[in-house]
């Protein structure tokens, strides 16, 4: 990708001269044109989103107007006439930004008092921050649980609030984004109560329609600045497909060398050559594995090099994270294997190369990660190492899908009743809810309030709804969709707490017999106590990793929309999913070879969510030459591949969605394939799939047809999570089936195109957010609340494409 010249401008004349001098003292003579434009909008009181490439100076675009305003506020009698709130999706990014702000504002003396306020902040510092800090850096979780519920203690800060900065706002998608959107509405409501109306300044990676996404997130009109005027060094971008091995997987399928092994080799080679690099990995376990393999290889070359590579992921203790960040900044570490905890904006200057182990799920994330290389304008290298799955294989063989396509629209659905209900309760506890507040929280809120009242969570007195319980309403939900208490991972011999795992992921990651990695050490899970949320582990050194397998069934609760596809049907609506982890595979670390399977006895979990599904008729099956013997395999193969391809069309991760295929489904009475959101009430992904179904299923068909294997492999139709052991699967049948289905697909109408690009229609109330006894349901515990007939699929051949956290 060729280098690009930069375009300079001048700061608006309303920026304080002291701030401009401080910026110049930091070595920045003139702003880029997009920085000056964003500052102008901020000073005009217009909320603005800056959506430009990595290392384009987005931070400075919002910092300059914020610092100038804080400087004005410092002249007030109380020294705090203006405040600003900064929100980051991760603690690491907030800590990094606090360092940057303090360095930049040093010439301004005590006029700018920046402080991080998160779960790691010592209690003795918190009161000082509430009373005296004028630039508070936190995350949405702390805003939801710590700041808003105790707003009287923050009254002087909120009263003077001029700006709310939302960094890396493209990460607020799906259920997490929907929760954050409601947290921001609660913040705006309290600010109005204290007489302030802050301007929102958002920073985003390059995204499709950033102003539309920012408006859905904040509930306010937002101006877009997306013309990137910063210079860029040349970027060499390699698409890397690991070679086939001599090994054979399930059903004799060819097996490629794993992306983990290839990425570890690349990290080793780059470190030996003194190249500063980061390897981004999809999972915490993958980050640990790559780090361990690279350290072992480096020790063979030069023992001193082994200590210059480490892993960085979520779940570490705060002091471990901070030590790694310092080592990376100082150059003590040459190579890092990291999850996206590091992707989000931590400012690492001078990286020469980025290795991406597996497509990160969205083009926005891909460019965000690749942009970490060459941050100082020098040339750089980015390598995408393909995993052995349908989407990665498709992308390395169709580079135009990466380089010639715009990044995705951000999908979020603030009106999801499962998301909205707990936030209405939290808002009512903060200040009694009135009819005037309902417009702020969206059209679904009026329908939910009577349900919350019936559930004895809220009570109406005169003209307002009040919270009735003793416990804190903010504790009804975790905003990252994790649901439930995190499972503590404890070393059995010592009782030492190693870290935590989200409750929803516990069944698949810390089941009995699972391999758990922490700080380069390998542990085996001895037991998982779901009642006490504790997994006991002991140190071990097995030559394998583990992958959980599950089975899933789906029943249709309500069909919202149905479109004829020839004789078939494409549908969207509400479903109930029953999922159970049934076993786990042991796979050899370097080759992925399956060593064995062990049965598990874990309880099933139920989930009410949103799904897209399609049916075919007997006539269509006849035209596709699909007889009853291969029908199950053809449907199953099409379902696996379609789930693998959906992240190309919706901003979801493969693990955010699940699927089921059934030769005769009891609710449709036809052969049916379901793809559903893995979160209560839905996340907007299935709806996105419904609106892009023609392009999505055409890409799915192409991915299967163009794979070189004979009868199916992990690159096209096999899934590592399949609870049925990838049986049955029929590759050619899936291609013929999708061909006939797509022949009946209607031409895309203009309104469908708009629906594809616009906000999802939440279908409020289709899946009730309340249990019969009241309260938003925990994952896996939604009870019948509307007396619907709980119909169970008979003979449901379920692919195990269920996400880890129903």
Automatic annotation (TrEMBL):
Q: Quote the biased-composition stretches of kind Low complexity, using this chain's numbering.
A: 758-774
Question: Which keywords does UniProt give here?
Answer: ATP-binding, Helicase, Hydrolase, Nucleotide-binding
Q: Where is this region: Disordered?
A: 745-806
* Annotated signal sequence range: none
Kindly indicate whether the keyword RNA-binding belongs to this entry.
no
- Taxonomic source organism: Streptomyces thermospinosisporus
Q: Which residues form the Helicase C-terminal domain?
A: 266-418
Domain named Helicase ATP-binding: residues? 39-225
One Pfam family of this chain: MZB
- Entries under Gene3D superfamilies matching the protein: P-loop containing nucleotide triphosphate hydrolases
Q: What is the name attached to this protein's record?
A: DEAD/DEAH box helicase
Q: Name one GO molecular function term.
A: helicase activity
């Amino acid at each position: 990708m060729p280098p690009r010249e930069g375009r300079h401008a001048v700061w608006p004349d309303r920026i304080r001269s002291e701030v401009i001098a401080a910026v110049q003292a930091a070595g920045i003579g003139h702003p880029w044109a997009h920085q000056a434009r964003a500052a102008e909008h901020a000073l005009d009181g217009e909320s603005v989103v800056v959506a430009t490439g990595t290392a384009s100076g987005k931070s400075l675009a919002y910092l300059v107007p914020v610092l100038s305003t804080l400087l004005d506020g410092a002249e007030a009698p109380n020294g705090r006439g203006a405040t600003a709130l900064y929100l980051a999706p991760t603690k690491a990014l907030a800590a990094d930004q606090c360092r940057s702000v303090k360095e930049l504002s040093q010439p301004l003396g005590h006029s700018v008092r920046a402080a991080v306020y998160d779960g790691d902040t010592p209690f003795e510092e918190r009161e000082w921050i509430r009373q005296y800090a004028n630039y508070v850096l936190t995350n949405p979780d702390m805003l939801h649980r710590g700041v808003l519920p105790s707003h009287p203690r923050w009254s002087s800060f909120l009263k003077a609030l001029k700006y709310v900065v939302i960094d890396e706002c493209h990460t607020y998608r799906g259920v997490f984004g929907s929760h954050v959107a409601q947290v921001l509405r609660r913040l705006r409501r309290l600010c109005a109560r204290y007489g302030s109306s802050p301007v929102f300044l958002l920073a985003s990676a390059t995204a499709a329609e950033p102003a539309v996404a920012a408006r859905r997130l904040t509930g306010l009109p937002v101006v877009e600045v997306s013309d990137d005027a910063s210079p860029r060094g040349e970027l060499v971008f390699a698409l890397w497909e690991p070679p086939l091995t001599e090994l054979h997987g399930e059903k004799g399928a060819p097996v490629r060398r794993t992306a983990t092994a290839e990425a570890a080799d690349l990290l080793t080679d780059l470190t030996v050559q003194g190249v500063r690099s980061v390897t981004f990995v999809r999972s915490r376990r993958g980050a640990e594995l790559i780090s361990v393999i690279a350290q072992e290889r480096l020790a063979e070359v030069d023992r001193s090099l082994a200590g210059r590579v480490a892993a960085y992921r979520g779940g570490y203790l705060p002091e471990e994270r901070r030590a790694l960040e310092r080592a990376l900044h100082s150059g003590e570490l040459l190579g890092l294997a990291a999850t996206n905890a590091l992707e989000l904006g931590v400012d690492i200057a001078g990286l020469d190369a980025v290795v991406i182990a597996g497509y990160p799920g969205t083009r926005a994330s891909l460019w965000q990660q690749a942009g970490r290389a060459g941050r100082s304008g020098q040339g750089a290298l980015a390598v995408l190492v393909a995993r052995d799955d349908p989407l990665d294989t498709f992308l390395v063989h169709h580079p135009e899908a990466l380089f010639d396509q715009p990044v995705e629209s951000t999908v979020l659905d603030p009106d999801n009743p499962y998301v909205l209900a707990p936030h209405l309760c939290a808002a009512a506890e903060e200040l009694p809810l009135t009819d005037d507040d309902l417009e702020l929280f969206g059209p679904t809120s009026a329908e939910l309030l009577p349900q919350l009242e019936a559930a004895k969570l809220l009570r109406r007195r005169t003209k307002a709804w009040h919270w009735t319980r003793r416990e804190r309403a903010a504790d009804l939900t975790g905003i990252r969709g994790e649901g439930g208490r995190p499972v503590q991972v404890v070393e059995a011999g010592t009782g030492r707490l190693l870290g935590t795992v989200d409750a929803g992921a516990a069944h698949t990651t810390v089941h009995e017999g699972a391999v758990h990695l922490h700080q380069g050490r390998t542990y085996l899970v001895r037991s998982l106590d779901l009642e006490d949320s504790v997994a006991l582990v002991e140190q071990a050194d097995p030559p394998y990793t583990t992958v959980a397998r599950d089975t899933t069934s789906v029943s249709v609760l309500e069909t919202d929309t149905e479109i004829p596809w020839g004789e078939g049907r494409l549908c969207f609506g509400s479903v109930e999913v029953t999922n159970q982890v049934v076993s786990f595979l042991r796979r050899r670390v370097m080759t992925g070879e399956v060593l064995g399977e062990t049965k598990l006895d874990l309880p099933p979990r139920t989930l009410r969510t949103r799904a897209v599904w399609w049916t075919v008729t007997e006539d269509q099956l006849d035209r596709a030459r699909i007889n009853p013997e291969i029908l199950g395999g053809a449907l199953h193969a099409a379902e696996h591949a379609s789930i693998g391809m959906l992240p190309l069309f919706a901003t979801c991760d493969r693990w955010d969605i699940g699927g089921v295929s059934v030769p005769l489904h009891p609710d449709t009475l036809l052969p049916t394939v379901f793809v559903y959101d893995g979160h209560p009430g839905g996340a907007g992904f299935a709806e996105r799939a419904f609106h892009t179904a023609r392009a999505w299923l055409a890409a799915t068909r192409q991915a299967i047809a163009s794979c070189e294997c004979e009868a199916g492999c992990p690159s096209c139709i096999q899934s590592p999570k399949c609870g049925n052991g990838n049986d049955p699967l029929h590759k050619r049948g899936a291609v013929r089936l999708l061909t006939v289905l797509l022949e009946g697909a209607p031409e895309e109408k203009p309104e469908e195109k708009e629906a594809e690009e616009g906000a999802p229609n939440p279908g409020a109330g289709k899946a009730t957010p309340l249990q019969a006894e009241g309260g938003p349901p925990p994952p896996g515990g939604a009870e019948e609340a509307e007396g619907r007939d709980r119909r169970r699929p008979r003979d449901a051949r379920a692919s195990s494409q269920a996400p880890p956290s129903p």
